[in-house]
């Protein structure tokens, strides 16, 4: 595979994995805007080049592969992809359904070890269709960062956002520096792509960054068997985070102590499962997410639609 300048094969593979797993809708836009494929149904990147990408497009008549040029080459690789997707949206006249909002920090608390809860006062009109587990992109001095809405209280016009503090990473520094009264700018318009988790034998897993999403999923679990849950944490003080979450009947929750690089212990725990898994969702560092996703799909015969394990942060 030819890669972009100053980009190793491993880095290129990570970008390809990320866009294929987390941005299927955007890749379908590229297929519709920039390939002659008849009525594209799905698309996946198979290679990256300095001036474009190779796109495998699935359509009613089968599959074909096309070369799609980047609309700009003056920015880093991810920027080239974003610019090309933006050009596809413009050509198709399909802009993302987002909404910019300005909230105010009302309170800052700590729901667990290295976790910071931001209680934000919001315009009730911006919260009508939003639910716990949805995500918003927050503007920080170092650029946009995406965080999950832990709770939404439309009547009280409040939103709770929990941020795991990764040392001195840009998002952690931003969240740690917020105080009551500070303004916060966010862009709404994204929710998790989930497999059907409610048919039994479901698995949820993740690290500290996944806790808000995991909590929202468990709190709003339907009348169905509870899932198997594996959560890797570095500090046992993170376990009380779920104390106020009413777990669905049948839920089996295990806290996995971190041992070695982030995600390694969780990968071992997932490999050691001795019960079948029919659907899985998880989130953690990107490298471990790829390993666990590959492991689960192979061990349990899961197709991508039934196994979503995504990278919440670059590892």
UniProtKB/TrEMBL annotation:
Residues 98-243 form the FAD-binding FR-type domain. Pfam families: DUF2470, FAD_binding_9, SIP. It comes from the Bacteria. It comes from Deinococcus indicus. One of its GO terms (molecular function) is oxidoreductase activity. PANTHER family: FERRIC REDUCTASE, NADPH-DEPENDENT, NADPH-DEPENDENT FERRIC-CHELATE REDUCTASE. InterPro entries: DUF2470, FAD-bd_FR_type, FNR_nucleotide-bd, Haem_oxidase_HugZ-like_sf, SIP_FAD-bd, SIP_fam, SIP_rossman_dom. Gene3D superfamilies: Nucleotide-binding domain of ferredoxin-NADP reductase (FNR) module, PNP-oxidase-like, Translation factors. This is FAD-binding FR-type domain-containing protein.
């Amino acid at each position: 595979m030819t890669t972009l300048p100053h980009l190793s094969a491993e880095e290129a593979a990570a970008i390809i994995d990320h866009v294929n797993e987390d941005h299927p809708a955007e890749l379908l836009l590229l297929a519709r805007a920039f390939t002659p494929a008849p009525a594209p149904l799905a698309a996946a990147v198979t290679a990256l080049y300095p001036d474009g990408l190779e796109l495998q497009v699935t359509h009613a008549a089968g599959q074909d592969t096309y070369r799609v040029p980047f609309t700009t080459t003056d920015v880093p690789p991810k920027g080239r992809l974003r610019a090309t997707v933006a050009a596809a949206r413009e050509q198709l006249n399909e802009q993302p359904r987002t909404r910019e909002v300005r909230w105010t920090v009302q309170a800052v608390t700590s729901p667990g070890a290295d976790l910071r809860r931001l209680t934000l006062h919001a315009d009730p009109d911006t919260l009508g269709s939003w639910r716990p587990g949805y995500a918003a992109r927050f503007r920080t001095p170092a650029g946009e960062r995406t965080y999950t809405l832990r709770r939404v209280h439309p009547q009280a016009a409040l939103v709770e956002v929990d941020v795991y503090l990764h040392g001195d990473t840009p998002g952690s520094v931003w969240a740690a520096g917020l105080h009551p009264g500070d303004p916060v700018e966010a862009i709404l318009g994204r929710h998790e792509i989930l497999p059907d988790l409610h048919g039994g034998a479901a698995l949820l897993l993740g690290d500290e960054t996944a806790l808000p999403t995991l909590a929202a999923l468990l709190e709003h679990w339907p009348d169905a068997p509870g899932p198997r849950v594996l959560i890797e944490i570095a500090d046992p003080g993170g376990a009380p985070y779920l104390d106020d979450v009413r777990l669905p009947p049948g839920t089996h929750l295990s806290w996995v102590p971190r041992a070695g690089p982030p995600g390694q212990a969780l990968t071992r725990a997932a490999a050691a499962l001795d019960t079948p898994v029919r659907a899985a969702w998880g989130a953690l560092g990107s490298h471990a997410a790829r390993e666990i996703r590959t492991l689960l799909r192979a061990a349990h015969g899961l197709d991508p639609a039934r196994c979503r394990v995504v990278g919440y942060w670059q590892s």
